[in-house]
Amino acid sequence: MTKAEFAGQFVSGHFGDMNTYKTRLVQISDYIYDKCLKSQGSATAAAIAALEDPTNLDVYIVTTGGALNTGGDEITTATGDIVAYNATTGLWFFIHDLA
User: Fold this and answer.
1) Which residues, 6+ apart, have CB-to-CB distance to 47 below 8 Å?
2) What pLDDT score was predicted for residue 69?
3) What's the pLDDT band for 25 if we cut at 50, 70, 90?
4) Which residues are registered as beta bridge partners of 84?
5) Residue 16 CB burial class (10 angstroms; 0-12, 13-18, ≥19)
């Protein structure tokens, strides 16, 4: 989707009344929340791995390295790595890998 197509999702057409305008703003808010990274601060790899219900695109800075994910999907983090969660796959991935 291009930038113009994205904008068209929210500003095209006649808005009508204030309720329609508010509905469009909620759509924008939902879209941005669902598609943008969400910083959750910093934590150890063990604490990140122990999270029971991470949200899609939660981002953590690793304070003490360790393993995330399991089996063939395991990644080994180091202090200072930045990881995010993909709720579709249920896996953590590197945004920034110091290795």
Assistant:
1) none
2) 97
3) confident
4) 59, 93
5) exposed
